[in-house]
Specification:
elongated, 6-stranded parallel sheet, alpha/beta
Length: about 240
């Protein structure tokens, strides 16, 4: 959990795993991954700052679009790219234009037809997660592409899965926000610091490869310890 184990939220007796309850693997990444955290540069031409989001229409809630629009308005030269989720159909395209048009940024949003999620995120500089998503795997895809991930974390466990991944990778303080305002501030902080993004992109690959979170042996050991703890509790209850 992004803020640590809080057993008061549960009625059952809880056992918290050191690396959390989510099991995710690293995607296969080739040497085309940008070390700077973003799409490959085109010669010496300065590239437009690009936010990237992988979100189906159901996750593009008014609150999410409002937060993204605040970010775009604060960065007038930036754009937002969306991974394609049937957005080129007439009905869905019209809905996208309506959603982003309500905030005056529809002309700054592009849809990218790239089926591989890591390859898609390489077209961006910063990953924006929807305010409500149940897909923590997106975090790993974006990190594997070298991008910082701006992540919301609500109060319910189902709203904290993506944030849990980042926190167990030691990235929670820089990327996880508990409020909409905090979310926007985190995004703008990364957007205004190109050097920080490049340094992060250059080192995140090694960080992922060495993270206990992705080590099967470590995760199995944590589960074994949890079972041993439960067994001890059961024996103590039986003896009392």
């Amino acid at each position: 959990d992004p803020v640590g184990g809080d057993s008061s939220l549960y009625k059952e007796n809880t056992v918290f795993l050191e690396s959390g309850s989510l099991i995710l693997g690293l995607p296969a990444v080739d040497d085309k991954s940008s070390a700077s955290g973003g799409a490959p540069e085109n010669g010496s031409e300065e590239r437009q700052l690009t936010f990237a989001a992988d979100a189906p229409l159901g996750e593009l809630t008014p609150n999410t679009v409002a937060a993204w629009s605040r970010i775009l308005h604060a960065m007038p030269d930036a754009k937002l790219i969306l991974a394609n989720h049937d957005f080129h159909t007439e009905t869905n395209a019209a809905r996208l234009v309506e959603l982003f048009g309500d905030f005056g940024v529809a002309h700054r949003v592009d849809v990218i037809k790239e089926p591989d999620p890591v390859a898609f995120f390489r077209f961006g500089d910063i990953c924006l997660l929807p305010l409500h998503t149940l897909r923590p795997d997106i975090v790993v895809d974006a990190l594997a592409a070298g991008l910082p991930v701006i992540c919301p974390a609500g109060t319910g466990r189902h709203t904290r899965q993506a944030g849990s991944v980042l926190c167990h990778l030691g990235l929670g303080g820089d990327m996880v926000a508990s409020t909409d305002d905090g979310y926007v501030e985190l995004a703008l902080g990364w957007a205004r610091d190109e050097r920080r993004r490049r340094e992060f992109g250059g080192g995140v690959g090694e960080r992922l490869q060495s993270a206990p979170f992705f080590d099967p042996a470590v995760r199995a050991s944590e589960l074994e310890k949890a079972f041993e703890s439960l067994w001890r509790q059961t024996c103590e209850m039986a003896a009392s």
